[in-house]
């Protein structure tokens, strides 16, 4: 085979493009392409294998192998040399194919006479589409140049596959993005939804992978690179006061924007005949393929950054922005790699569900989705590569499953599940005005957790008696700077008005740990959950907390006011915070402002230490609210953010229940009202256990109030307590087994 030159390569790409522009069915086109490549590269064989499903490759066209084998020969991912190319997303180049490890001879193809083999992946943005192979009789290795040329051809094929050029008969050739796909992610917010995909960042579509004039394409690339550098510099100039991680990402962007190696590779792609945007995508595809193989999280993040900056470059080159003119479909389900809390709030309740590739349960987006009560699945890997705007999609936030383009049978079963949930909702609505009174006569007050003005309508809808926890972080998280006192006072006033006299417990700013303000300088902490957070920040840097307390006092405007401090670990922290509050009350009095009719100052018990505080703490606190999410994390020393351990320990663990009983006893001894406001309060069996050990007030997501009230009204709490005691007496680790068994007879 003669040496291949860049102009040979360009000629081949142009012939390829012209061939693809001719009318014809998918199969005809593939046949023409294999013929063309074999002819142009002067090899005896050229074959295209495409994925039939996620695990199987199918020979879809060939020049040189037996035609009868087309659509008959299949191999599993990783099987044989073709399977190896697909699996590793790396070329295989050998002069002696039969001697290669893993070689599998396919007798129906007649390939035994060919010694040399070169296979390259057909992939687009890390998504494997198939394998392109050339073979020849002569036993020789292909040159680096030939490997490169074939990779460029594969890139064009990938773009064409994406555009649906090969649609035709045969399942492996049917348009991609047509098949059902199931994603197993992690539940970020419970609930189910059926709707249509709305991509937060629609993919850039490259319609002309082949460039006519390399000079023109180089100029386009250089101009776009220049714009990219300027835009990154602008971003960097604007980072005053942003946290170090943001700067770090931007610095990485800058590094890539100035990377000679990156530009050189893209220029080489262009010289081979690709258009500027196809060259960007080719390098992006290899980066994505590498990303999937890199075990080191730091390096993976850097490759992610390269991916982001490639997208910016593509948008500059194609002029395709986020606004594509597409209209939000009915029942939109947002699909994104990740999304900021502000952007998610902008969509608001218009969304029926959210699916993210990244994210953690405690991420800001998850906090917002929870506040909006929108089903959320996180860690749905690769969904942005698979989903297209408007695709039908089912989100199961309970199990963390997402069905993209579901089969009819799956959709029907899913709808049955939604209908059952709707029926249950009707049942809950019928008891909305009734108290959560257990069969033994004990009444448990059910309150709701909130964090947005938009949550307040749920107060009436859910039958909650009040807001047991109003998280005030969101207003801080979604802005670029600290909100002003006036803005906060206006919001808090509207919340109180909307509560129509029902009690609202405002929790002062709980930042740090998982909740990081984008504009606040924060020390690099080795372990933020145990670090400078919540009241610790409020006491050490009192400016913001003071401003917030003033806003609350103004907002009350003569109404009763309830405030609680998060994450109090020792009595003195509570006393210091209370002193600050009282000083602000005094200041308001001096300024002649109306004071709240009554002020309650409470503490959140979120660290085991506070359960052992001196009596004077329990006597001084107007109320105590157990923040079970944090308390459980610290009781079991199991990070609530860490998927590996966060579900490891059961709230119904008998040691934990005994510990909670101790808290109930301390509060009862001091006559201090006690509530529980962690997520566990919203789970029916957990709620029964909490009530059984003595909690008389639970605060939860509004959607949980119905189910919790329903079960509480059907059980006898004395019996439940007996069941827990029996589990303890038997030395069992968890009371769950016995409680479940006992509940079966009750409901
Ligand atoms: C908790 O820790 O249980 C709690 C209610 O607070 P957050 O989840 O906001 O930390
Ligand atoms: Mg907490």
Radius of gyration: 31 Å
Query: In percent terms, what proportion of residues is strand?
Result: 15-25%
| CATH homologous superfamily annotation of the largest domain | Phosphoenolpyruvate-binding domains
Top CATH class of the largest domain? Alpha Beta
Total tally of structural domains: 4
Global mean pLDDT = 88
CATH architecture of the largest domain: Alpha-Beta Barrel
The share of residues in helices is: 40-55%
Architecture overview:
The chain has 747 residues and is α/β, with parallel strands linked by helices. The radius of gyration is 31 Å and the shape is elongated. It is built from 27 helices and 23 strands. The chain has 4 domains: 3-173, GAF domain (Beta-Lactamase); 181-202 and 324-420, Glucose Oxidase, domain 1 (3-Layer(bba) Sandwich); 214-318, Enzyme I, Chain A, domain 2, CATH 1.10.274; 431-744, TIM Barrel (Alpha-Beta Barrel), CATH 3.20.20.60. Phosphoenolpyruvate is lined by residues 469, 471, 510, 606, 627-630, 677-678.
């Amino acid at each position: 085979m003669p040496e291949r030159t860049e102009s040979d390569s360009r000629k081949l790409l142009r012939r390829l493009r012209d061939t693809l522009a001719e009318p014809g069915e998918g199969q005809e086109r593939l046949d023409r392409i294999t013929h063309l490549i074999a002819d142009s590269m002067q090899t005896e064989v050229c074959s295209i294998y495409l994925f039939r499903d996620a695990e199987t490759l199918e020979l879809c066209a060939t020049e040189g192998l037996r035609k009868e084998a087309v659509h008959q020969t299949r191999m599993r991912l990783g099987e044989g040399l073709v399977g190896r190319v697909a699996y590793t997303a790396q070329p295989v180049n050998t002069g002696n194919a039969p001697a290669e490890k893993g070689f599998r001879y396919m007798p129906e193809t007649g390939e035994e006479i060919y010694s040399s083999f070169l296979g390259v992946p057909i992939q687009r943005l890390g998504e494997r589409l198939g394998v392109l192979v050339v073979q020849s009789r002569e036993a020789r290795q292909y040159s680096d140049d030939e490997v490169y040329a074939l990779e460029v051809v594969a890139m064009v094929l990938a773009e064409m596959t994406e555009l649906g050029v090969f649609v035709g008969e045969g399942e492996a050739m049917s348009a991609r993005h047509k098949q059902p796909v199931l994603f197993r992610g992690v539940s970020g917010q419970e609930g189910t939804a059926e709707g249509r995909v709305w991509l937060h960042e629609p993919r850039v579509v490259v319609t002309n992978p082949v460039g006519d004039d390399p000079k023109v394409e180089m100029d386009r690339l250089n101009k776009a690179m220049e714009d990219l550098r300027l835009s990154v510099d602008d971003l960097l100039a604007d980072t005053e006061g942003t946290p170090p991680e943001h700067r770090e990402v931007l610095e990485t962007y800058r590094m890539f924007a100035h990377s000679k190696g990156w530009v050189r590779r893209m220029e080489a792609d262009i010289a081979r005949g690709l258009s500027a945007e196809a060259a960007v995508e080719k390098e992006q595809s290899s980066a994505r393929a590498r990303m999937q193989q890199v075990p080191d999280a730091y390096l993976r993040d850097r490759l992610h950054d390269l991916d982001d900056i490639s997208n910016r470059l593509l948008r500059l080159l194609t002029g395709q922005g986020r606004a594509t003119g597409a209209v939000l479909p009915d029942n939109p389900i947002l699909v994104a790699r990740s999304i900021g809390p502000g952007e998610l709030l902008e969509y608001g309740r218009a969304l029926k569900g959210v699916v993210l590739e990244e994210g953690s349960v405690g991420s800001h987006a998850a906090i917002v989705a929870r506040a909006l009560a929108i089903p959320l699945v996180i860690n749905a890997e690769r969904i942005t590569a698979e989903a297209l705007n408007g695709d039908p999609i089912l989100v199961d936030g309970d199990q963390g499953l997402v069905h993209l383009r579901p089969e009819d049978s799956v959709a029907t079963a899913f709808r049955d599940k939604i209908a059952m949930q709707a029926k249950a909702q009707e049942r809950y609505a019928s008891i909305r005005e009734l108290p959560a009174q257990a069969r033994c006569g004990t009444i448990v007050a059910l309150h709701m957790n909130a964090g947005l003005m938009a949550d307040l309508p749920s107060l009436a809808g859910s039958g909650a008696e009040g807001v047991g926890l109003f998280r005030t972080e969101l207003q801080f998280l979604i802005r670029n700077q600290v909100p002003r006192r006036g803005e906060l006072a206006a919001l808090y006033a509207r919340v109180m008005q909307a509560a129509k006299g029902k009690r609202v417990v405002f929790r002062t700013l709980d930042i740090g740990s998982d909740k990081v303000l984008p504009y606040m300088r924060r020390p690099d902490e080795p372990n933020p959950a145990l670090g400078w957070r919540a009241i610790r920040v409020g006491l050490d840097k009192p400016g913001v907390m003071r401003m917030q307390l003033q806003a609350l006092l103004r907002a009350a405007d003569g109404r009763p006011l309830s405030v609680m401090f998060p994450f109090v670990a020792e009595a003195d922290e509570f006393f210091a915070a209370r002193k600050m509050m009282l000083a602000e009350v005094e200041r308001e009095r001096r300024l002649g402002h109306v004071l709240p009719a009554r002020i309650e100052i409470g503490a959140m018990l979120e660290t085991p230490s506070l359960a052992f505080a001196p009596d004077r703490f329990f006597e001084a606190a107007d109320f105590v609210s157990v923040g079970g999410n944090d308390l459980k994390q610290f009781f079991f020393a199991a990070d609530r953010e860490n998927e590996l351990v966060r579900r490891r320990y059961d709230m119904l663990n008998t040691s934990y229940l005994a510990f909670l009983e101790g808290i109930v006893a301390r509060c009862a001894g001091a006559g201090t009202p006690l509530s529980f406001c962690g997520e566990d309060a919203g789970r029916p069996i957990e709620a029964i256990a909490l009530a059984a050990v003595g909690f008389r007030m639970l605060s939860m997501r509004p959607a949980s109030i119905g189910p919790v009230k329903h079960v509480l009204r059907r059980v006898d709490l004395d019996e439940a307590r007996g069941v827990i005691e029996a589990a303890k007496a038997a030395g069992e680790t968890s009371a769950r087994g016995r409680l479940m068994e006992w509940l079966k007879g009750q409901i």
